[in-house]
Design brief:
Elements (H helix, E strand, L loop, with lengths): L4 E7 L7 H11 L2 E7 L9 H8 L3 E2 L12 H7 L3 E7 L1 H9 L5 H7 L5 E5 L3 H5 L1 H12 L3 E2 L3 E4 L5 E5 L3 H13 L8 E6 L4 E2 L5 E2 L6 H12 L3 E6 L11 E4 L3 H11 L5 E4 L6 E3 L18 E3 L3 H6 L6 E8 L3 H11 L4 E6 H4 L4 E8 L2 E9 H15 L9
Helix pairs in contact: 1-2, 1-8, 3-5, 4-7, 9-14
Amino acid sequence: MTEKKRLLLGITGGIAAYKIAEAARLFTQEDIEVHTVMTESACHFVGPATFQALTGNPVYTDLWQASAMQNMPHIHLSRKVDLILIAPASADFIAKLANGLADDLLATLCLARNCPLLIAPAMNRQMWENPATQRNLSRLRQDGVGILGPAYGTQACGETGMGRMLEAPALLEALRNAMFSDKLFSGTRILITAGPTFEAIDAVRGITNRSSGKMGYAIAQAAIESGATVTLISGPTCLTPPAVHQFIPVISADEMLHAVQTTTPQTDIFISVAAVADYRAAQIQPQKIKKTNTALSIELIPAPDILQTVSQSPNPPFCVGFAAETEQLVQNAQIKRRKKKLPLLVANLVQDAIGADESELILFDDNGKHLLSKAAKIVQAHRIIQHIHTLYPQSGHLVS
């Protein structure tokens, strides 16, 4: 890496703070200049001297630190770095960020920053799932703050669930993507579909699936960070859309197909992540079907295959497909790629990915298969975008 980047590493109170010593070591080995700011509570878990030794730079802990330039560290510290990473980001600090509070040095410099901000949440699973925390995270996403993780696993309290901070290597990869990735797709128009579809049976019931939309939304964020002009078409999810150029909410496969066909003439790359229903009801009942003691038969007909419609249209964009399988992953993925004439297909096992914040993926292209080891979905999204870039100049070819 030719250009030395500067990082402001913010550490808040939480047992996961001990992991950041290893992360700081990895960051400096990547020739990243690290400046550390710790909250008062963080200092109860790990000492400032540790980070001064690992980074070779003073550690700041006090808004009124007299040694800071012009005694205004909340301004000068944020002006001299390319990116701010808060890790671990506690539930309390996330709430501060979401509400614009500035009652200590770290919160104040985040409010005064003029550079990107990433946070790596770490907390008990119930704190993570609490509606207040999720509201705060939603607001931060709308404000353009990048959320790294958390992961699922055993926690310091002895419970198991979502809330573990990402490990140091994953944080390093996220930094690489944010700090060193060129604008690979500057001027390129990327269309992404995400989430499930909902196919109505009657006035209240329908056919859908367990897709959370997380992978599609992560790819949309990674595409934005690559410089692309991004359109996101999404089925029903509980997620807050990233700051895309255009967001189009849909419900059914027919609605998604119409939105895609309207948009693809202005599209260079189409990434079909959405879990579109394979079947729909032949007849939608206008009223709720009443329960009886007899069996009920509903005729199902195939729903439109959106990806195949686009990939086999005249002069299609560069198409990327996704395959979620429950068995024979490699065989089924290769069949799907050839059938739909895709230059790239991303595959995973359903049981390992749906609803999770981490996944293991396999990429299939004309050069064979490429394993993407298990990682946070935003990390996988950046890996996918980078792989698409290696293939995109060759987009005129047909899959054999």
